[in-house]
Amino acid sequence: MHKDVPLADYSTMRLGGPAKFLQSITEAGEIPTALAWAKKQGVPVIMIGGGSNIVWKDSGFDGLVLVNKIKGFSIQPADAESSYVEIRAGEDWDKVVARTVKAGLHGIEALSLIPGTAGATPVQNVGAYGQEIAHTLVSVQAYDTETKDFVTIPGEYCQFAYRDSRFKSADKGRFFITGITLHLKQANPTPPFYPVLQSYLDEHDVKHYTPDVVREAVIAIRSSKLPDPSIVANNGSFFGNPIISKTKFEALHAKFDDIPHWPTKDGKEKIPAAWLVEKAGYKNFHDRKTGMATWHKQCLVLVNEKATSTADLLIFRNRIMHDVEHKFGIKLEQEPELLP
Ligand code: NAP
Q1: Is 88 tagged catalytic?
Q2: Which residue minimizes the CA distance to atom 12 of ligand 1?
């Protein structure tokens, strides 16, 4: 147990005040003990993973932060063509993807190089290049702070939606995720791939699609346009892609005929937030006042160049949101969670 710990060290944006108490959790069994201790002290508890999707408030957290470092990974054959993969929540996500790909398993290879822990992936139903964790997730193992018991939640009870789940909305803060189980196929991925991925594969004359070549392609694409959080402070994509009604889209399209869009299964249209931010005037934008900037190769990534407080980041965020709403009538939603 550590006291008065700077939370900036527990967010890849590297901002925020201190935590009163902080403890690493290496086994699920330590969770109820830590919660009982916090209850005795009369302080609230938050559990975090790698800090890649967290923005801490400047006021810090007057409670106990549990850092999920529960490790474990195993592959069990389900049948001749597929396997169950059991992953403890504190495992580094990209290392998990690497191990499944090495085992010839298909289903999460497009989720390569996403920063953070495995336990964080169901919270926002992490997705990229057409794959999302909901597609392969069998169950989430967690400690339920309501029933005070360890539970296994089947995927169909996770209320998965586009970058959303019950862990982020209806049951925010209720479950401390300790592990996930995936069902992956011993197979090769098949097209159609996202255009950016297909172009990369074509340019590199790849004709035989395997989990390994898709992983390598995704790594190459991501590293060519996204900053490495260990070097440049950032939280990845700062805004989600808005999904708007067909009517709203048609009105926008009449004004902006080059607006990129993707139809969703339920008859709506998904608009890339990056395009909205760029067209609102934030391409490679460096704000002297707040020390914040947009990344020169992908303006959806807000980077902390010289900001000294979360207040700076929020001023910059609000300015972008305001200008996007003013120009397009779309309210952007922040992806990283503002805590506490
Ligand atoms: P990108 O490749 O520049 O693509 C821009 C947008 O076009 C994305 O919103 C993507 O939707 C959409 N898109 C492209 N091809 C599509 C297709 N065939 N069908 C439907 N939609 C299509 O995106 P980026 O910002 O560099 O990010 C790369 C990938 O990582 C994207 O898939 C992005 O969503 C994902 N990502 C996920 C998270 C997260 O899970 N929190 C955070 C950052 C980035 P989608 O967003 O639906 O893929």
Answers
A1: no
A2: 272
For 42-62, the pLDDT digits (tens) are 999 999 999 999 999 999 999
Residue 301's identity, in one-letter code, is V
pTM above 0.70, yes or no: yes
DSSP string, 255-314: H-TT---EE-TTS-EE--HHHHHIIIIITT-EETTTTEEEETTEEEEEEESS--SHHHHH
Number of domains, the chain: 3
Task: Look up the domain containing 126 and give its range.
Answer: 73-185
CATH number at residue 303: 3.90.78.10
Both 102 and 141 in a single domain? Answer: yes
For residue range 261-313, what is the model confidence (pLDDT) as tens digits? 999 999 999 999 999 999 999 999 999 999 999 999 999 999 999 999 999 99
Ligand 1 lined by 262 (C-beta under 6 Å) = yes
Residue of 14, 88, 163, 215 with catalytic role: 163
Ligand 1 center to residue 339 CA distance, Å?
25
Q: Looking at the domain assignment, is residue 198 inside a domain?
A: no
